[in-house]
Amino acid sequence: MSSDTTITAIPTGVVGKQAPGIWGFNGSQLIALLLMIAALGVAPFFLYPVFVMKLLCFALFACAFNLLIGYVGLLSFGHAAYFGMGGYVAGHAAKVWGMSPELAIVLGGLVGAGMGVVFGWIAIRRQGIYFAMITMALAQMIYFFCVQAPFTGGEDGIQAIPRGKLFGVVPLDSDMAMYWVTAVVFLIGFMMIHRIVHSPFGQVMKAIRENEPRATSLGYRTDDYKLVAFILSCGLAGVAGAVKSLVFGIATLTDVHFSMSGEVVLMTLVGGLGTIFGPLVGAAVVVGMQNYLAEAGAWVTVIQGVIFVACVLAFRRGIVGEIGNLFKVKL
Amino acid sequence: MSFTRRSALAASAAAVATLGAAPLSRARAQANSIRIGVLNDMSGPYRDISGPYGVACTKQAVAEFGAQGFNVEVINADHQNKPDVGAGLARQWYDQGVDLILDVPTSSVGLAVAQVAAEKNKAYINTGSATSDLTGSQCKPTTIAWMYDTYMLAKSTGGAMVRTGGDSWFFITADYAFGHALERDTTGFVKAAGGEVKGAVRYPFPATSDFSSFLVQAQSSRAKVIGLANAGADTVNCIKQAAEFGITRRGTKLAALLMFLADVHALGLQTAQGLVLTESFYWDLSDRTRAFTRRVLPHLNGAYPNMASAANYSATLHFLKAVKDMGVAAAKVSGTAIVDRMKAIPCDDDAFGPGSIRVDGRKLCPSYLFEVKSPAESKAPYDYYKLLGTTPAGEAFRPLNEGGCSLVHA
Amino acid sequence: MLDAIEAFLGVPAPLLFGQLLLGLINGAFYAMLSLGLAVIFGLLNIINFTHGAQFMMGAFAAWMLLAWAGLGYWWALLLSPLIVGFTGVILEKLFISRLYKLDHLYGLLLTLGLGLIIEGVFRNEFGSSGLPYRIPDELQGAWDLGFMFMPIYRGWVVVAALFFCIATWLVIEKTRLGAYLRAATERAELVQAFGINVPRMITLTYGAGVALAAVAGVLAAPIYSVNPQMGSNLIIVVFAVVVIGGMGSILGSIITGFGLGIVEGLTKVYYPEASATVIFVIMAIVLLARPAGLFGRA
Lengths: 331, 410, 298
Prior knowledge:
- The complex is a heterotrimer.
- By secondary structure, chain A is an all-alpha fold.
- Helices cover 69% and strands 1% of the residues of chain A.
- Chain A has one domain: ABC transporter involved in vitamin B12 uptake, BtuC, CATH 1.10.3470.
- Chain A has helices at 12-16, 27-46, 49-71, 80-95, 101-123, 128-148, 175-197, 200-210, 212-217, 222-248, 258-271, 278-293, 300-313, 318-326; strands spanning 165-166, 170-171.
- A two-stranded antiparallel ribbon of chain A has the order 1-2.
- In chain A, a hairpin with a 3-residue loop joins strand 1 (165-166) and strand 2.
- The radius of gyration of chain A is 19 Å and the shape is globular.
- Chain B has two domains: 33-148 and 287-365, Response regulator (Rossmann fold); 151-279 and 367-396, 3-Layer(aba) Sandwich (Rossmann fold), CATH 3.40.50.
- Chain B has helices at 2-19, 51-65, 83-95, 107-120, 150-163, 177-192, 212-220, 232-244, 261-267, 269-272, 287-296, 307-326, 328-333, 335-344, 393-396, and strands at residues 33-40, 71-78, 100-103, 123-126, 143-145, 168-174, 196-203, 225-229, 253-256, 276-279, 356-357, 363-364, 367-372, 385-391.
- Chain C has twelve helices and two strands.
- Chain C has helices at residues 2-9, 13-44, 51-69, 73-94, 104-126, 152-174, 176-186, 188-193, 198-220, 230-245, 250-270, 278-289, and strands spanning 142-144, 149-151.
- Chain C has a two-stranded antiparallel ribbon with strand order 1-2.
- The longest helix of chain C has 32 residues, at 13-44.
- The N and C termini of chain C lie far apart (45 Å).
- The B-C interface holds B 43-49, 51, 175, 201-204, 206-210, 212-214, 216-217, 219-220, 232-233, 236-237, 240-241, 244-246, 260, 262-263, 265-268, 270-271 and C 12, 15, 18-19, 22-23, 25-26, 120, 123-124, 127-132, 134-135, 141-142, 148-149, 151, 153-154, 222-225, 227, 229-230, 233-234, 237, 265, 268-269, 272-277.
């Protein structure tokens, strides 16, 4: 199968090679990882901490999404449901039940994963376009639920969510304290995804992406693998949503809306499907663009559309994928 | 060696992408200049309510205020109806020396920006969100809400309709907090005025575009008034389809609980005639509003000001008056101080007339009940409304002690 | 007897019949839109995410023809699908045709992006609150059915939608052209070998599917708010309709469209809060029982 006919754009030869390294990172990835960690360490001193936190939340969301599309080849068009619902539940737990932030984040992840169990069970019965449309329709149901349910506050959203004290001890009210928590959560999620992708489980996932009938004939129960990947992805999306609601102190309908499902696709596509660092770069581009274009007036949706079209037509590998291709490394 | 170079390149690409998102770098404002940031919806469904028109009205106010010994700069941005984008922009603006953030439609964004303003101790005037929480449970010493809220709309339309004979109601309600609040409040005023509510139907928002089923249900209840507890395209659809089903022609009144002049324009008078609605500003209300409209019209690209864009004008003038009163240097220090000064001095401008601001941040102004004219009655462009009744400023809004605002007891 | 029926139904029987009729009318829109999607999907194998925007363009084209050229509803019904269909042909030639060798998901992403662009451009040009469009004089007024007034225009919508649906079905199932189309769906190379210009046929099919969306847009213009986002909420429901019916089945999409309109209409009487979710719930149930959809081939 040539790289053009698969949904991911990684040259097949590179996929096959299992590069030696630490935790499944090859040399170039390891260096990029160290640089990323260094960047995480200094970023809040140069940029708005809240802005960087927002970026990291979306980056984790996009990484979780990428786990599905980049490595199993499943395009979920309703990932906002898990992201937004994780945010709502964590926000509600922190504000109304007085739950501590770490528990609220875990709860957000569990809610995302729980929804993933049910929705995944329905959706994995079909592949490709059907899968995309089913996940979209299910997410739309969640959106209607959130509009109507009293605990979400309708169009007001949940406002003034307290950040609380980490483990009941460390207050997170200052942006810097919250930043380190966000950075650590992001890193854990990031490493976890990388670990999954490079585990034997991840190899089966990639086999399913490349050729599902063959994987089935090799004796793998592909539906089980797909479902587990879906649940993991939804759980991490829920964690990202939970952290975001604590960072901003708000949880609103924007995060469960269909356009959010579209944005995470855009982030991953721009950064590079099936690359480890792509979603992070893509999230930075999209989030930064929304910030910048805010002053450009009315053209935000149009420009987003143009980027979609440009990515699909001209550079399907995404930013990171193109760079990797240029220098023949896998990032 | 080469490995390092490649990876460094990749990483620097990531870094560049991140840096591209750096806070909007503008020169910090000088000490003798005031910056006003208009934050609203330029690209989404609320664009026509304020959007570019709200910006134009703000600039008009600045131009009319003139040179008073300090500079005024107006900037604007599109919050895309995303609370996180809105709150992020507000934070950056305030840090870069913006002294007032204005407009902010969409309740979720409006409330989120109120929190940032309070945290940064900067002035914030909301002219776009309908939620009464801004001056209620979530009121802040830095927040002022200018033109309307769900309570005021319910009171004007609900109370006044009953007095003009519309004493039995049926509600078509968007099934979310905003619709519920409108229905609940209006029901209260209808009953208080001696009317009755014959029923209500709650429809899913925003997925409904065909309302004929609900209109038929409303009609078979034989209520005299159908209350539309919704907004925007939903209201427009209801009215369009009510005309199609001949409901208004057979004597049933439609009461739109939230509607703007731009919506009436979108419907056309043929369809909208006879509709009853509430606004706190109409361009053809008095000599003063006509004078204001004449001045601002050249900047509005063919549209007419409605209560949201006119509120931006009114609020900006009052803010600048307070700044002049206490001096630029003092005004820049504390948002609470400038808001307190705005509450202390009386308001007066051509769009909203004389008025005042309450301790909870609520700007008081009369609310007007209008009926939409028939095509034959309309003599000029945008000659759409006739006045049915006025609720005076003192009675138009929720009583101070009922909102649950913490500033009231302070 | 009638009392017994009413007690069973919970609402007056005439009201219920009226509501069923209204449901059927909404079903007409679902049927026309899902039919267009099914035609495009059948041959191009892409899900046309731009469909909602093209429905909106149909309504706007009707408004433009009236406001700028003085051409009324009946001209719009003829010209608007041609104009919008032509823009579809251009889109296919410029963009979509480049993706046939790739995974179908890229087609979905591309058309999603195109939809965003179209919607944004229309909003910048025409504002967000919409434009007025009236019911044509010939179709003004209503029939008094005793229990309710049925606007003549609504009756016309059902008739027109049925006409377009049946015509499309006949063309595809009963004509030589339709036979080529169906053959090309199965084995494009073989049809090409018979000397048929398959790429052109694909382009025109896309144009035709888009034109169907535009017809629905013109039919909707007098009764729905004509604004740039009018298609975006509708289209997700239509996708669910297509999944329920089974994609690529022409007759399936027509029957499912009308049927779900009726189901939705009934929900609006008995439990209006759920009238938006009912179609998605049905979708989930159908998928569990028949993953290929009601009329689809597994």
